[in-house]
Amino acid sequence: LEIIVWLAESGDKEQVIQVVQSLSRFFRVVLSKGRAVVSLQEELSCIQSYLYIQKVRYADILNYEIQAEPEALDCRIQKLSLQPLVENAVIHGLEPKEEGGTLILDVRKTGNYIRIRICDNGMGIEKERLERIRRRLSEKQPERIGVWNIWQRLSLYTGRDDSLKIMSKKGAGTIVSIYLHRGEEDV
Q1: For 1, what's the count of Cα atoms within 13 Å in the CB-facing half-sphere?
Q2: Distance (Å, whole) CA 180 – CA 110
Q3: Residue 146 CB-density burial (10 A; 0-12 exposed, 13-18 middle, 19+ buried)
Q4: 130: helix, strand or coil
Q5: Where are the beta strands (DSSP E) in the chain?
Q6: Distance CA 56, CA 184 (A)
Q7: Looking at the DSSP assignment, which residues form a beta bridge with residue 67?
């Protein structure tokens, strides 16, 4: 909303309209008539709207690309499973990096899985912090991080604890991968 106010004050009517439309699309998916599970296409629409708004906000430091195989778009996923991970990439990965960077969201069918990867070339996660996050996930110990919440929701949805994987190197970026078994989308 602050971005909209800033754009309105600067007189950029066209940009105000585009941001408000993106915000409207974002909320439409978030609300989605009370459904907890949406199609991957709806979830990606939400991400597209979120990233557009962030691109207006972080024009100089954020580039993004969404790549999705059309065959994967009907897959079902819990609503807002991707947005917090994308937000983490923007806020913790790219925003602190002086020259900014790129976020790529890639969706592919691989064997019996739909693989969703959120990749950034941002700050990366320190080795000790990454080990602590992985340990907390493997030991099912809650931590006050969005990744824990997403992992827990995915585990409950898929019935498996291996649906989310994180790879990162300090200074080189982070890749968060989500694996949905084909057929689970109908659960």
Answers
A1: 1
A2: 10
A3: middle
A4: helix
A5: 37-39, 62-68, 76-78, 101-110, 113-120, 164-169, 173-181
A6: 36
A7: 106
Contacts of residue 168, Cβ cutoff 8 Å, sequence gap at least 6 = 124, 125, 130, 174, 175
* Rounded Cα gap, residues 120 and 102, in angstroms: 6
The tokens of 52 are what? 């557009």
Q: Does pTM surpass 0.90?
A: no
DSSP 127: H
The pair of structure tokens assigned to 159 is 């019935």
Tokens 């979830």 found at: 43
DSSP secondary structure of 40-81? HHHHHHHHHHHHHHHHHHTTTTEEEEEEE-GGGTT-EEETTS
Partner residues linked to 38 by β-bridges? 77
Q: What is the pLDDT of residues 108-149, one digit of tens each?
A: 998 888 999 999 999 999 999 999 888 888 777 666 667 877
